[in-house]
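Working notes for the structural subgroup meeting. M.R. asked for a predicted model of this chain before we commit to crystallization trials. I am recording the input and output together here so anyone reviewing the notebook later can reproduce the run.

Input as submitted:
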Amino acid sequence: MKKLFWLINIVIILVVASCNNDQKIQHQRQLSQDSINYRMMNANKLLTQSETEKIIDYTNRYQWQMKETGTGLRYLIYKQGNGKKPKIGSVVKINYKTGLLNGVTIYNSEESGPKIFEIGKADVETGLQEGILLLKVGDKAKFIIPSHLGFGLLGDQKKIPQKATLIYDVELISVENLKQTK
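Returned structure, recorded in token form:
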């Protein structure tokens, strides 16, 4: 009976020790993950700060008095139109020129024709869609789209490099509201 008592006590001690070990390992893993998250968050802040400084330098160089949205999109409407405003679900047609902060033009409607897309669909940069929602037909505007509102870390795998800030010069040509079916 004494042997059974000691055997049960040893098993209990081993189980408790094992649980404590698992808890220690889990705690160490959590600390490690927290450290990684903290470092990634700081790296992201530094990248965003660096991009913001480049954008400010660019706008100062061209003396553009741009407004900024809560997402970081900067815009300047330099010619006022008097047409219809788009909304989510509208199909818009724009003339555009897309460039980079270094002055290189990468895409434009002179070569590829006007861009036509539905606001709210994922096939066009978030920043461009946000900017178009600020316009009326006939408006001409400049947008500076930070990388997180454009093509992000990867670029477009064609002409837009990774982490690229985009400069758009756009003219809103038309707005069509899609009919909703019931």
